[in-house]
Structures are given as structure tokens and as C-alpha cells.
Design a protein that fits this description.
Largest sheet: 4 strands, mixed
Number of strands: 6
CATH architecture: 3-Layer(aba) Sandwich
Shape: globular
Strand content: 5-15%
Number of helices: 6
CATH topology: Glutaredoxin
Order of helices and strands: HHHEHEEEHEEH
Number of domains: 1
Amino acid sequence: MKLSRRKLLKFATGSLVWPATILHAKDTALPVPKSLPQAAFAAHTKGEPLVVLISLPGCVYCELVRRNYLLPARLNEVLQAWQLDVSNKTSPLFGFDGLKTTAAAQAQAWKVAFTPTVLFIGNQGQEIAERLTGIAVPDFYGAYLEQRLATARKAI
């Protein structure tokens, strides 16, 4: 199922949630992959890009993106969205090169310098759409996400 603008707007209803009303991160966490190639393969078998949110614990804007856009779409099986925590330097993660790494090291390898950053990854580990960095204009975030997803889907 493709994420249409209408569905994205439906998922994002109430997207302007202010920090005081945001659920705790444990309630809205996306899964963390153990293997990026396996996560990409699962996404591509559904005709979707691998969507990776690079986040930081306590980041209100990361939570806004996760809670109002990525998690609802994942729960409705529209996206294969995962998250990596830039401060996690201990949990093993298999990268696209087949070697063990960590979320922090992978984010550094991808040159992610700001959270939240949403990446759209192809099956070989390449970015297939422009990354979505920050959330400067929450009113338009859904449209920006939709645009990047459309580009990524064309590249698959």
C-alpha cells in the first residue's frame, strides 16, 4: 500500500503536538534494526524504501516526527520505518558492508549532524531521495515526507 497524501494527512491529524502532550518515547519508539541489509530487503520486498529516522533521546522534534508521521504509517503497514539513536555506541548493528557497527557510528558514516533526520535508503545502502533534516515548518512536514517517499519509490 502506497502512502498517499490523503493517508499521510489522516495519519498526521493533530501533528502540531506540543512537548507537554507528547507521549513518552518508549510508547512511540520505532523498532531498531539489527541488520540494515535485512531491514532494506524487507522494505524492498514490499516495494518500499528503507526509511530510517536518526534520532536522539529527549529530542522533542524527533518524537514529533516519530509519533505523528512514521509510527502511524508503520503500524498501518504503509512504511518500513526504523530508528537509530545517535548516542547508541554499544548495541551492535550490521551495516551494508556486512561488518558490525553501532547506530552512532552508522549515523556518523552517513554524515548525519542534526536530529531528527529521515533517510530514504535503497537496497545497497545508497540514499535514493533527499534526506529530510529537522522539522522547520511542521505544517508542511507531511508534504515534504510525501515528496521524498515518491522520489524514493521511483528509484526502487
